[in-house]
Specification:
There is one protein chain. The protein folds into three domains: 84 residues, Nuclear Transport Factor 2, Chain: A (Roll); 77 residues, Nuclear Transport Factor 2, Chain: A (Roll), CATH 3.10.450.40; 306 residues, Neutral Protease Domain 2 (Neutral Protease, domain 2, Orthogonal Bundle). The two termini are 58 Å apart. The chain is of the alpha+beta class and 499 residues long. α8 runs antiparallel to α11. It comes from Fictibacillus aquaticus. Keywords: Hydrolase, Metal-binding, Metalloprotease, Protease, Signal, Zinc. InterPro entries: FTP_domain, PepSY, Peptidase_M36, Peptidase_M4/M1_CTD_sf, Zinc_Metalloprotease_M4.
Length: 499
């Protein structure tokens, strides 16, 4: 927040520090010095108005303050439209102790049109719309603030309210921009300072990290020396600071009500809070990985994950609530990063193509993509050959007799349409092997980028062949088609066409 100064308030009185060996300045001396600094800064900006895209008379700038330090003087201005602030747009001029202008930093954004609000929204209505958008109406814990001003969008000054809300859920302070005429929420900003915590997890599961099944058993969530030996200490990034496992990309809902005042979450698997930490860490890591390979618009949100709330041996993503749920039957699904990643895959596809998987083949592609995401995540977390082409080793120990145990494999060499049985998980192994072979040929990052890019080309009823064609097209868009021959070969081996 800042206080607007009118044209008559260009001189302010500041309490300057008294330096050793100096004489304290009187208020009149301070006023003269501040005024001189502003005059010199004004003069510099007027002479360089074209460079900084300013009006030569500096209209559209309102003086904010002058800051004196031992080394330099800093004069700050606010961009305005019709006397109201253009939010976040300021200009500063740096002067040396002799008053010479050294530099300017300008956020000033020119505009050619001012959008008028036909019927200006009341401040309390703007606040209500912002709170509703955040889902924070019932949990606010501090007086909220709102302020009228403008943003510059595509050369137009748009009238908005900047509403600052304080809420319990989503925790902390949020800044929401509401159109002052239509009431539409234009954007929001998380003002909370994120903190990092630490915790213990399996990386990605005890079978993969140990490289064998020797000595590992569920025993109804019991601890053992062999299992505890596979615990890894990790950094839990982006926590909101409220002591809970709530952060930038994950919001844990659990009967365990896990919390830690010092953000240390060290538990073993006999403690249900362990699964909460597993889900937070691995989902957060997956979202950060997706952003690291160039996508900041895929499921970029704090997804709610329900842990230890469902007793069956199953996990799922709900398109209606946009939430994940992890079951506790058998080995708790939340103890296996491959299962966590698989379910996140469904959320990713629904985010990119709402309603994805409406057809039989689309549903199988969804399961196959989840297995691909889980298997490649496991491979990257514990790069050894023991769990290659297998997903969910630890989860599967209670129902699979293979070595390693597998929920599903990605190397069964199934071919379309010969091996189609019209069951999405089984038919998904056709698709997952194509994607997994793509990662083997091009590397995990390149393959994942191609797959994610291709999803936007698809529809809810897309077929295997649509998916294969979309991946080849994504390679053309991202890489100029340099992997076309390899993509053709990989999908042809699965009986699919890329043309």
């Amino acid at each position: 927040m800042f206080k607007m100064l009118g044209s008559a308030a260009l001189v302010v009185t500041l309490a300057l520090p008294v330096y050793s060996g100096s004489t304290e300045l009187s208020p009149k001396m301070v006023q003269a010095q501040v005024f001189d600094a502003k005059v010199k800064a004004d003069d510099f900006l007027k002479k360089n108005a074209e460079k900084y895209k300013l009006h030569r008379d500096l209209s559209g700038l309102t003086y904010l303050n002058t800051i004196e330090t031992k080394a330099a003087t800093y004069v700050r201005y606010q961009q305005t439209v019709n006397g109201a602030p253009v939010f976040t747009k300021q200009v500063t001029v740096t002067l040396d102790r002799s008053g010479n202008a050294l530099m300017a930093v300008s956020d000033y954004t020119p505009y050619t049109k001012i959008e008028e609000a036909k019927q200006k929204l009341a401040k309390n209505d703007a606040e209500s719309k912002a709170a509703k958008h955040l889902g924070a109406a019932a949990g606010r814990w501090a007086q909220d603030k709102n302020e009228f001003g403008y943003t510059i969008e595509n050369g137009t000054a748009v009238p908005v309210y900047k509403v600052t809300l304080h809420a319990e859920e989503p925790f902390g302070a949020w800044e929401v921009y509401v159109h002052a005429g239509t009431g539409k929420v234009l954007k929001k900003k998380d003002l909370n300072q994120k903190v990092n915590g630490t915790g213990q997890v399996f990386m990605p599961n005890p079978i993969e990290s140990q490289g064998s099944v020797t000595g590992l058993a569920d025993n109804n969530d019991a601890d053992s020396a062999a299992l505890n030996a596979q615990l890894k200490t990790v950094t839990l990034q982006g926590l909101s600071g409220n002591g809970k496992l709530t952060g930038q990309y994950v919001n844990i809902y659990s009967k365990s009500k896990t919390s830690s005042a010092n953000h240390v979450f060290n538990y073993t698997r006999s403690d249900n809070r362990f699964e909460d930490v597993m889900v937070y860490y691995h989902l957060d890591t997956l979202q950060r990985y997706i952003q690291s390979i160039g996508f900041n618009n895929i499921n970029n949100r704090s997804i709610t994950a329900n842990v230890n709330t469902y007793k069956k041996d199953n996990s799922f993503y709900s398109p209606s609530t946009k939430e994940l749920t992890f079951g506790t039957g058998g080995v708790d699904d939340a103890e296996d990063a491959g299962i966590i990643a698989h379910e996140y895959g469904h959320s990713i596809q629904d985010n990119q193509v709402p309603g994805f998987g409406n057809s039989a083949e689309g549903g199988a592609m969804g399961e196959g993509f989840g297995d691909f995401l889980g298997a490649t995540y496991e491979d990257a977390a514990a790069p050894n050959s023991f769990g290659s082409a297998c997903v969910g080793e630890w989860d599967a120990i209670s129902y699979s007799s293979s070595n390693p145990p597998c929920l599903r494999r990605l190397d069964k060499n199934k071919v379309y349409p010969r091996d189609v049985v019209n069951q999405v998980h089984a038919d998904g192994e056709i698709w997952s092997q194509g994607l997994y072979d793509l990662a083997g040929a091009l590397g995990r990052d390149t393959a994942t980028k191609l797959v994610l890019q291709s999803h936007w080309s698809l529809t809810p009823n897309a077929t295997f062949n649509d998916g294969a064609r979309a991946i080849k097209q994504a390679d053309q868009l991202l890489n100029g088609g340099r992997n076309a021959a390899k993509i053709d070969s990989i999908f042809a081996a699965r009986g699919l066409s890329t043309n």
